[in-house]
What we know:
The chain is an alpha/beta fold.
Amino acid sequence: MHLxxxxxxxxxxxxxxxxxxxxxxxxxxxNYASNSQRAHEALASLPKGCVAIxxxxxxxxxxxxxxxxxxxxxxGLDLVVANAGWSRPTPFNDIDAxxxxxxxxxxxxxxKQSLWLAQAAKPIFNANENGGHLIITSSVAGTRAxxxxxxxxxxxxxxxxxxxxxxxxxxxxxxxNTISPSxxxxxxxxRFGDDKIKAHIAGTLP
Length: 206
């Protein structure tokens, strides 16, 4: 059985894509914002039939178009992984570090994206015999006051509650779940440096 999935093109998103194709026989569409070369290098590591689609998921119209295009190119859609996120590392105790525009960007990527993808996928999933599944990537920063910035922590907490609300609103045919990983060694987290990563894992970093 082939299942179709929409995930990201780098970092955790690419790991998820490889896992789904290798272990669960999925055909996937990977989303990328602007780096076409990296996206197509990622695509080359995936099985035949997978596709790469460019879209800015901080924009509702782009999210709707992304799901529509993924559904058309894959010939179906069973799972959407809302994995894109945004943060600008700042001192956590500096409540003035983020501008209003920064907060808006954090909410667009870390919260609204999931709602928009759910809106786009809802009619497709409801038409599927077995419904569909939306997975939202949050963070342990959403369960406690921690993370790369206050805005990141707040919006990741909102992502968890968004998942709960969508699960209630879309049940029983559409399942919605959240995963909340801690620090993951990707090209994004590498900017923190080994000392900060080790402190985070040890629980000594706020």
